[in-house]
Amino acid sequence: MIPPNFEYFAPNTLGDAVSLLERYGEDAKILAGGQSLIPLMKLRLASPRFIVDLNQIQGLEYVRESDSYLRIGALTRVTDLEASEMVRKKYPVIYDVAAHIADPLVRNMGTVGGNIAHGDPANDLPAVMLALNAEFIAISPTGERTIKAEEFFIDSFTTALKPSEVLTEARVAMPPARSGGAYLKLEKRVGDFAIAGVATQLTVDGRGVCERVGIGLTSAGPTPLKPKKAEESLRGKKPDDSAIKRTADLAADNANPRSDLRGPAEYKREMFRVLTIRALRNALSRVSGGS
Amino acid sequence: MSMTKMHIRVNVNGVEREGDVQARLLLVHFIREVLGLTGTHIGCDTSNCGACTVVLGGKAVKSCTLFAVQANGKKLLTVEGLAKEGKLHPIQEGFWEKHGLQCGFCTPGMIMAAYHLLQKNPNPTEEEIRRGISGNLCRCTGYVKIVESVQYAAEKMRVQEAQVAAR
Q: Fewest CB atoms less than 10 Å from the CB: which of A17, A22, A140, B5?
């Protein structure tokens, strides 16, 4: 399959990239890892007239902690998240998701920024970003702004980014002590999109009460979903079996999956319930030092 | 819209190659049709099967899911670049010795994925091998023989490394 023709630009600076995006507006598409865009172009589901390839821009591939944030550059390959010892030790929910996005070959190209900014509700990173209450930094010809993950995902394949904006960084506040998280993904086969995916992130205080609760759902409707009632129901409570079950029931109620080849909506909703229970338990075991 | 061709330069298996390409030309088509290296296969053309796997800039990627222009200025290794002086690479030898192929269609991609895996992890467990080749589909073997082939290659490459180090 041959993608439609386009004019190709590979700017060396972010400034040049956003100028091109401003000039061509909706006719331009950003190429980061290309692992979603190129398949869509082959199927003629996307036919951008202009492509702005970000890969010649230096300084957008990094995973580091600074100023009390974990900062991930938008061009960071998923494989580099997966390989980071720091991520594995301190942000297990991010390690989990990195190891389950598509397959190793796709992860070698696919980027963190692309996985998020594509706005696909079946992509895995957005749910994790919602559970972690992440923030995204975007640059445009008029400057930089910070967008909360919660306010970023507007509709399927539609985000808060303007046509002339580039996502440059995802950042997550460093979790306090006694925190843990997990991402669980149910897939038909390796490399497929999730039938259902659940991200959890918990902080438990000295008395065993959940101080912070973050949950995010993949493939749960037109956008990645943050089930707030579910989060709320566990906050300030001890995560015993009945509290966990109630939280999972609320998350499943909040999910709005569609029946398709990956299964009927009813089945998927049940999977959200089961996966939420398991992901909360995994997160708790990691709070107390498990892996 | 400008249909001008772009000039690209890629180091392919150690040799500088150049060509004029349309921006939309996929890397796999550049490799097969412009360079004439048909060892890299097109299986699904939908980013699923991994038959088109090559090593670009040191990483195994699906060449059907990249534009040729993205390879400009980079080093590209295809299955044709593995054998040296008429001698099979240990991974190729492993597939030969352990019967890691039946129809052979997925083999170039499997070998290139295994190549990158063993660069990163010279002593992988069976599970790590299975994970490492999880982006490559084989419809004949059931993977058992492929895993054994990669284990054979890993062992052989470790022995070679040790011999080089001992010199």
A: B5
Average pLDDT, chain A: 97
Amino acid B1: pLDDT: 47
pLDDT of residue B2: 52
Of A6, A42, A109, the CB nearest to B23: A6
| Nearest chain B residue to A35, by CA | B65
Q: What is the pTM of this model?
A: 0.95
Residue A130 has pLDDT above 80, yes or no: yes
Residues of A in contact with B6 (CB under 8 A): 8
Counting every residue written for chain B, the total comes to 167
Question: Which residues in chain B are closer than 8 Å to A55, comparing Cβ atoms?
Answer: 70
Q: Which residue has the higher pLDDT, A110 or B2?
A: A110
Is A8–B6 a contact, with Cβ atoms under 8 angstroms apart? yes
Query: A1: pLDDT confidence band, cut at 50, 70 and 90?
Result: confident
Domain extents in chain B = 5-81, 90-166
CB–CB of B47 and A106 under 8 A? yes
Quick: pLDDT tens for B14-66: 999 999 999 999 999 999 999 999 999 999 999 999 999 999 999 999 999 99
Fold observed for domain B5-81: Ubiquitin-like (UB roll) (3.10.20)
Assigned token pair, B153 = 């290659």
For residue B89, give how far its alpha carbon lies from the nearest alpha carbon of chain A (Å): 21
How do residues A185-237 score in pLDDT, each as one tens digit?
Answer: 999 988 899 999 999 999 999 999 999 999 999 999 999 999 999 999 999 99
- Let me know if domain B90-166 sits in CATH 2.120.10.30: no
Q: Check residue A290 and give its pLDDT.
A: 62
User: HEC states along A79-142?
Assistant: HHHHHCHHHHHHCHHHHHHHCCCCCHHHHHHCEHHHHHHCCCCCCCHHHHHHHCCCEEEEEECC
Do residue B23 and residue A8 have CB atoms under 8 angstroms apart?
A: yes
pLDDT, averaged across chain B:
96
When CB atoms are compared, the residue of B69, B132, B135 closest to A191 is: B135
- CB < 8 Å & 24+ apart, contacts of A64-70: A65/A174, A68/A173, A68/A174, A69/A171, A69/A172, A69/A173, A69/A174, A70/A171, A70/A172, A70/A173, A70/A174
What residues contact B157, with CB distance under 8 A and at least 6 apart?
B90, B118, B122
Determine contact: B163 vs chain A, CB below 8 A: no
pLDDT at residue A291 greater than cutoff 70:
no
Give B65's contacts in chain A (Cβ within 8 Å).
34-35, 38-39, 106, 109
Nearest chain B Cα distance for residue A204, angstroms? 33
Cross-chain Cβ contact A35/B65 below 8 Å: yes
